[in-house]
């Protein structure tokens, strides 16, 4: 590998930068502006969801996206604060004894970001990018759905002014809220409900109306994405003009203007030990969520995502977040989809968004003083509502009840117990289901389709069979957990056929046979021989046959044979039966 190719592999920015076209510029600038307009209110909202000052969300939207733009392999992925990571931060820090507003709370949040980045980089060194494959979609979907409901419940106090009890489950908190609904704070409730209604209903009509009036698709998209910022602006002006804080409406208050200070003052070895489990969870969930979104978008443009490089990019972005006073970051689903839909061609769109966010942090934070916290809560609620994947659950239930059980176990585990338990429970159900299925492999009796050399399941097709010859196809690899089931099926089937002389195991779907299964097959050979039945194998794959030749099975199989195909086995054994008769 040449030096140039190594540099391009380590710094994917060189790949798109060296091949940049002038025609991309307008799309990237437009997408960057649209993403920034969404990112500014979302960044502040997610910071407050994590129990952090709103400026922390802005800081996390400046340096981390720049690092990802240099190192990441996804061109439209938008990296910054995300709802699930914010919830995980709040959950982790509430469990270690500090409350929002405490200086140690912020330090721990920065430490979490640094540890998350370090864990991701360690995973990259150990080539653990394949871990994305071990969280199945039902588990991940159940987790994000449960987390979305948790986030919505957590925002009810900000939306209504009704405080929720601490140290209770989400279900208990929701029940308490329903009982206390009549005690809602009127100005807070009005602002919250109106904000949610506007955010849910106004975006589509604006874009549709502008397109009807002749506006370009890009201009209409830009206008429709300004709804959160417009809502935020109107609410802030109203709170100031009518002096609503005097009536008890909670506002954001003072937000320091300027760029973040770089530093490592948050480092603390003792705190790091306490926060390690939470950091591992944030790293795994953030990585899986980011890569999942990146791959969806990459497929649409026939681009390629490198899992291990994404670990490096996300690890670097989280370390950059910690150093610059930001919270843990990941690839955001909603922002990335907006970035993609707005036409982002490269990560230049991210850099444009960073410039806009930086300008807002330096010059415009005083304008947010009267921003009602209930409006930020509304932005969070509307942003996470699409994460509740009821349609996916319905499709999964229709297709596979076991996968749906993993979804439901994760979802209710997150809601009823806690986030970590819910995820672990979902993984346990998914793994348990896999092991249960693996321990009961499908074994089909097959026969020959008349006039062909094709063999199919006798229960599904009209086939030719032979009284002295039985063909069984094993549809899974054989190992210690399932070989007993196969033995039982073979013994049961053979006992029902007194004329049986030859039994052929068709191994076309067997990719591996472990040592325990080999020993059991040797015992099966002897048991069948005592019953007057000879065991044969057919269609054994080359790698499997190579390993069997290093065992005693093939020697003990004699006079049984290993046939190249089921047709070969039938022709040989049927002819031998005719000759003997």
UniProtKB/TrEMBL annotation:
Bilayer topology term: Multi-pass membrane protein
Classification via InterPro entries: S04_transporter_CS (IPR018045), SLC26A/SulP_dom (IPR011547), SLC26A/SulP_fam (IPR001902), STAS_dom (IPR002645), STAS_dom_sf (IPR036513)
Pfam families: STAS (PF01740), Sulfate_transp (PF00916)
Protein name stated in the entry: Sodium-independent anion transporter
Keyword Transport belongs to the record: no
PANTHER family, A to Z: SULFATE TRANSPORTER
Localization of this protein: Membrane
Listed GO CC annotations: membrane
Origin organism lineage: Bacteria, Pseudomonadati, Pseudomonadota, Gammaproteobacteria, Chromatiales
Leader peptide range in chain numbering: none
GO MF, one example: secondary active sulfate transmembrane transporter activity
Positions of the STAS domain: 459-573
Gene3D superfamilies tied to this protein: STAS domain
Transmembrane segments: 29-50, 56-72, 79-98, 110-132, 139-157, 184-202, 229-255, 275-298, 348-369, 375-393, 405-436
SUPFAM superfamilies: SpoIIaa-like (SSF52091)
Keywords: Membrane, Transmembrane, Transmembrane helix
Main subcellular location: membrane
């Amino acid at each position: 590998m040449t030096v140039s190719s190594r540099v391009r592999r380590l710094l994917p920015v060189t790949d798109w930068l060296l091949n940049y076209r002038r025609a991309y510029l307008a799309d990237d600038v437009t997408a960057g502006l649209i993403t920034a307009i969404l990112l500014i209110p979302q960044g502040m909202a997610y910071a407050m969801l994590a129990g952090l000052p709103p400026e922390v969300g802005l800081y996390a939207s400046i340096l981390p996206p720049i690092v990802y733009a240099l190192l990441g392999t996804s061109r439209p992925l938008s990296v910054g604060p995300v709802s699930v990571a914010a919830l995980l931060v709040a959950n982790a820090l509430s469990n270690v004894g500090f409350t929002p507003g405490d200086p140690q709370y912020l330090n721990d949040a920065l430490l979490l970001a640094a540890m998350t980045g370090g864990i991701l980089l360690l995973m990259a060194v150990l080539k653990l990018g394949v871990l994305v494959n071990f969280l199945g979609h039902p588990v991940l979907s159940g987790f994000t759905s449960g987390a979305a409901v948790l986030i919505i419940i957590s925002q009810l106090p900000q939306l209504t002014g009704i405080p929720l009890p601490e140290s209770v489950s989400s279900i208990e908190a929701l029940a308490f809220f329903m009982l206390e609904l009549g005690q809602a704070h009127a100005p807070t409730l009005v602002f919250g409900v109106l904000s949610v209604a506007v955010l849910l209903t106004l975006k589509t009509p604006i874009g549709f109306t502008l397109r009807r009036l002749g506006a370009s698709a890009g201009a209409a998209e830009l206008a429709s994405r300004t709804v959160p910022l417009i809502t935020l602006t109107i609410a802030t002006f109203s709170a100031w003009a009518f002096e609503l804080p005097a009536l008890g409406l909670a506002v954001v208050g003072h937000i320091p203007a300027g760029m973040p200070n770089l530093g490592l003052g948050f480092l603390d070895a003792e705190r790091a030990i306490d926060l390690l489990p939470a950091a591992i969870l944030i790293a795994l969930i953030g990585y899986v969520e980011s890569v999942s979104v990146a791959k969806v978008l990459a497929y649409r443009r026939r681009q390629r995502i490198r899992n291990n490089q994404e670990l490096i990019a996300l690890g670097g972005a989280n370390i950059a977040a910690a150093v610059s006073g930001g919270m843990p970051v990941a690839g955001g689903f909603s922002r990335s989809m907006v970035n993609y839909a707005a036409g982002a061609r490269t990560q230049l769109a991210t850099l444009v968004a960073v410039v806009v966010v930086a300008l807002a942090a330096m010059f415009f934070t005083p304008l947010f003083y009267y921003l009602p916290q209930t409006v930020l809560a509304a932005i969070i609620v509307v942003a996470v509502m699409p994460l509740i994947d009821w349609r996916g659950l319905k499709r999964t239930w229709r297709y596979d009840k076991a996968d749906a059980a993993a979804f439901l176990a994760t979802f209710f585990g997150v809601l009823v117990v806690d986030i970590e338990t819910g995820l672990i429970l979902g993984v346990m159900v998914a793994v348990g289901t896999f092991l249960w299925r693996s321990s009961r492999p499908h074994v089909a009796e097959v026969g020959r389709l008349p006039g062909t050399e094709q063999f199919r399941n006798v229960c599904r097709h009209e086939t030719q069979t032979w009284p002295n010859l039985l063909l069984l196809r094993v549809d899974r690899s054989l190992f210690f957990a399932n070989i007993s089931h196969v033995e039982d099926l073979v013994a049961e089937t053979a006992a029902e056929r007194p004329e049986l002389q030859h039994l052929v195991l068709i191994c076309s779907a067997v990719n591996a046979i472990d040592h325990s299964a080999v020993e059991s097959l040797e015992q099966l050979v002897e048991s069948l021989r005592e019953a007057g039945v000879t065991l044969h194998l057919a269609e054994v794959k080359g790698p499997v046959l190579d390993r069997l030749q290093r065992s005693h099975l093939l020697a003990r199989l004699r006079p049984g044979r290993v046939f190249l195909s089921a047709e070969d086995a039938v022709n040989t054994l049927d002819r031998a039966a005719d000759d003997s008769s």
